[in-house]
Specification:
The structure is a single chain. Helices cover 74% and strands 0% of the residues. It has 388 residues and is mainly alpha-helical.
């Protein structure tokens, strides 16, 4: 898990150094119209596309937010305008939604899967995660679209000069360069290996990602060198991930997680409740405790071992115990409520384009609907495909 998180940071750095993530975002936005609703749809679409190829929520938000502000400025509006609030909040919330849908989109997913591998000895492939989570994120994306267009009424319904700004920014990037093309090909090959893991080849996600980063660092054929990469990577973040994983592993091996699980949930008698009621209560607990965490990876490091211990007390087959833990990992990605709930939210909030109240107004309906959708999926889709 630590190696994969490290390689994800390198891949995100490669995107930033070559500006490929910005080119992809601009290209996607150039395909949508200039009406406000189309721009909201474009902001969500950019988040979806980048989630496949940029394994860093902060990097994805960093690519999209400045572009939205540029479009707003082109219409003569300030970053304090309602249009700016609409587009920037949409961009941040969409990133959180697709942290759930793609296994490699967020470090907390990799941390959780590391614990699952340690405790149950089972790997969840990229394709399996996509089958479990992508439909959930797709529906949440539709909900986000309607929540945002109803919540914030912009000053205009059509930005006639919006496409001109996007074309100008694309022109400033110039024609696609050799390094960008190399990165595109490498990322697509990597995505294919991720998606076919355990189906067409025996190589796990970590192995193929390490090989891809080694190629991208190679002299002559690569896209960046060690000096460029290391200056873009927050090594403290990697240390935090490693320490968090160590903490979680210690909780599991010392049975501390089992004690915490019994202390927190034991008195509720969850082992005698219907599974759906158990999922509902634990999900509410998960959402509430997230309010005290600014880092989903840290939250995953602290809670996933506890949820694993809890799952072992439930009268379920092993595969369904794993499913219970994975569903709670989806909830850990719920950074919808406050600007401090996730780094991408804080990056967006730093633009000054919206208030905490604005963000909360969007976060409350998203969290409520997300909770309801967790229960609906638990009673239907996840049962049908064998996750529960």
């Amino acid at each position: 898990a630590v190696a994969l998180v490290g390689m994800a940071l390198f891949l995100a750095a490669a995107m930033q150094i070559t500006n490929l993530h910005k080119r992809i975002a601009l290209w996607v936005l150039s395909l949508v119209g200039t009406k406000t609703k189309a721009l909201v749809f474009g902001a969500i679409l950019v988040a979806i596309v980048l989630a496949f190829v940029v394994p860093s929520a902060t990097a994805r938000a960093g690519a999209g937010v400045p572009i939205r502000l540029g479009v707003v400025a082109a219409f003569g509006l300030t970053k304090q305008s309602r249009l700016a609030a609409l587009l920037v909040i949409t961009a941040a919330q969409a990133v959180s939604i697709w942290n759930i849908g793609i296994k490699t989109a967020a470090a907390q997913n990799l941390i959780a899967l590391g614990f699952i591998k340690t405790e149950f000895g089972i790997d969840i492939t990229w394709g399996e995660w996509f089958m479990y989570a992508a439909p959930f994120s797709a529906i949440m994306s539709v909900v986000l679209f309607f929540v945002m267009i109803k919540l914030i009424k912009p000053e205009t319904d059509n930005i006639s000069s919006g496409k001109d700004v996007i074309r100008q920014q694309l022109a400033e990037l110039g024609p696609i360069k050799r390094k960008e093309l190399t990165l595109i090909i490498t990322t697509l090959v990597l995505l294919c290996f991720w998606a076919t893991e355990g189906k067409l080849h025996p190589f796990d996600t970590t192995t193929v990602t390490i090989i891809a980063i080694a190629f991208l660092l190679a002299p002559k054929v690569g896209v960046f060198n060690w000096q460029e990469a290391s200056s873009r990577i927050d090594w403290g973040t990697l240390i935090v991930f490693a320490v968090g994983i160590s903490l979680g592993s210690t909780l599991l091996t010392t049975k501390g997680a089992a004690w915490l699980s019994d202390t927190i949930f034991g008195s509720l008698g969850l082992d005698t409740m219907p599974l759906l009621a158990t999922i509902a209560l634990v999900t509410i607990f998960n959402i509430i405790i997230h309010l005290g965490f600014a880092s989903a990876p840290s939250l995953a490091s602290a809670l996933i071992p506890v949820f694993i211990a809890l799952s072992l007390t439930l009268p379920l087959p092993v595969e369904n115990q794993i499913g219970f833990v994975i569903i709670q990992q989806f909830v850990i990605c719920f950074g919808f409520l406050l600007p401090v709930s996730a780094p991408q939210n804080m990056l967006a909030y730093g633009t000054g384009s919206f208030t905490t109240k604005d963000f909360l107004k969007s976060g409350i309906p998203l969290t409520i609907f997300g909770f309801i959708l967790i229960l609906i999926f638990s009673a239907t889709y996840w049962k049908w495909i064998g996750l529960l």
